[in-house]
Design goal:
The complex is a heterodimer of chains A (218) and B (228).
Chain A (H helix, E strand, L loop, with lengths): L1 H23 L13 H27 L5 H30 L8 H22 L4 H25 L18 H41 L1
Helix pairs in contact in A: 1-6, 2-3, 2-5, 2-6, 3-4, 3-6, 4-5
Chain B lengths: L2 H18 L2 H20 L8 H29 L2 H7 L4 H31 L6 H25 L5 H26 L5 H33 L5
Helix pairs in contact in B: 1-5, 2-3, 2-5, 3-5, 3-6, 3-7, 5-6, 5-8, 6-7, 6-8, 7-8
Classes of the chains: A mainly alpha (218), B mainly alpha (228).
């Protein structure tokens, strides 16, 4: 537990440092101050996609190899995917309200992101309330969710969209890079920390469930 | 048993059953008809509707009734205990899934094309380029049937209708978007819109390709009861 406390402390310190970097980063030419939401929005989107992939991979292992060890991984990835997806879906409209004048537009990127988030929510819902076989259903949905990720990513290029192109990170002003990459690393660390903690909890839950079933059988 | 042989036996069986018990198809067609009529009543003549909205109404009716058709098709097998017999028979399970999905695709396609004259009459929506329209109807039906069958076979037996709707609708949104946008584009006579309809068709083809491949691969592990 001490190890986690230290990691959490490190994560908190990094957040402080990154906030300072974000404050010091120059204002974007057209959008001004509101563009700073980018430093939260994009790392969250990256983690949202990563978690969708992890959930899909764990789902594949669960279905194909029938390995129940993958279940806590899938459950954890789904929950963190939902959490980071929610951050994306909240920060996006906040930014969009100022940049486009609307909280929400039925643009390709926004719509596909919402679909991906809904798929993860449905997968978690199926896992929690699907009864026997719920984990399999959740695994199937997670796999379909993970194949949606490339659609979300390339939606900006495939459809006419008002959302910025994916090359925005590559073409970022060099003065903005430390704040962006610092925030990305911090968010990734936070995600890892949450993942490890939740995974541990999910494994314990699984063990308790198995013991309860065994006791009931006896 | 090889896939081809199993496929031949199962597809004949599926078509025979559907031809004998036409009640599901008729009930579903009636539901789709009622949905279109309800929309026509709600949206009176004095409101000018865009082509996209007319196509949206038509395809939403197909989608809602199509999912119900798929659910009924699998539910019927469970109810009459034929599903378990098929599961125990020495057929490759992917053949079972492919035949069930193909028959459902055919029925949803017939439903979609059959509803078009009514929509044309009620809303004055006219198709100008037929080949992309038929292609989009076919591929749209395919995504409804193949995704529907995959999850209908895997959902908990009790409350399966509610579960199926909850699970499948979010996954079907890309197909829904492609079909509605593509068919809307096929309703305009100019070359630019026709090219757009073909683009949507290609995108739907990619989506369906992924659904079919994943479906064939996942059907067996997804529908086999969990070992504990």
């Amino acid at each position: 537990m001490k190890k986690f406390s230290l990691l959490a402390l490190g994560c908190g310190l990094l957040f402080g440092l990154c906030t300072w970097l974000v404050v010091r980063a120059p204002n974007e030419f057209t959008m001004g101050l509101i563009q700073r939401i980018f430093y939260i929005h994009v790392p969250c989107a990256m983690l949202f996609f990563t978690m969708a992939f992890v959930a899909g991979g764990a789902g594949m292992v669960l279905l194909v190899r029938r390995s129940m060890a993958a279940e806590p991984w899938m459950k954890t990835a789904l929950e963190l995917g939902i959490l980071f997806g929610l951050c994306v879906l909240v920060t996006g409209p906040l930014w969009g309200r100022k940049a486009w004048g609307h909280w929400w537009v039925w643009d390709a990127r926004l719509t596909t992101s919402l679909i991906l988030w809904l798929t993860l929510v449905m997968a978690r819902f199926a896992h929690a309330y699907g009864g026997p076989g719920g984990a399999q259903l959740a695994a199937g949905l997670s796999i379909f969710g993970s194949i949606n990720v490339p659609f979300v990513y390339f939606s900006v290029s495939w459809w006419r969209s008002i959302h910025p192109e994916p090359d925005v990170v590559r073409t970022l002003d060099p003065a903005m890079r430390p704040a962006f990459w610092g925030m990305t690393a911090t968010m990734a660390l936070l995600c890892t920390l949450l993942f490890v903690l939740r995974l541990r909890m999910a494994r314990l839950e699984q063990t308790i469930e198995e013991h309860t079933v065994e006791e009931e059988l006896e | 048993m090889p896939f081809g042989q199993a496929f031949r036996i199962l597809i004949t069986r599926e078509f025979r059953i559907e031809l004998r018990q036409r009640v599901t198809f008729y009930a579903v067609a009636l539901l789709a008809l009622l949905l279109i009529l309800l929309f026509a009543l709600l949206l009176s003549d004095d409101i000018s509707l865009s082509v996209e909205l007319k196509v949206g109404i038509w395809w939403s009716s197909v989608l809602l009734s199509g999912i119900w058709l798929v659910h009924q098709s699998i539910h019927k097998e469970h109810e009459q205990r034929t599903w378990i017999s098929l599961w125990l028979a020495p057929f490759p399970r992917s053949a079972l899934y492919a035949t069930k999905s193909l028959v459902c695709t055919f029925q949803v396609f017939v439903l979609a094309v059959g509803l078009y004259p009514l929509t044309w009459w009620l809303f004055g929506w006219k198709i100008t380029t037929w080949i992309p329209f038929v292609g989009l109807c076919l591929l749209g039906s395919l995504s409804i049937a193949w995704l529907g069958c995959l999850f209908a076979a895997a959902t908990p037996r009790r409350h399966s209708a509610q579960w199926l709707s909850l699970l499948v609708y979010p996954l079907l949104v890309p197909a829904l978007l492609c079909t509605v946008q593509g068919v809307s584009a096929a309703s305009y006579p100019d070359a630019l819109h026709t090219a757009s309809a073909w683009r949507w068709l290609r995108l739907l083809l990619v989506f369906d390709g992924m659904v079919v491949l994943l479906g064939l691969w996942l059907f067996e592990p997804l529908s086999t009861p969990e070992e504990s």
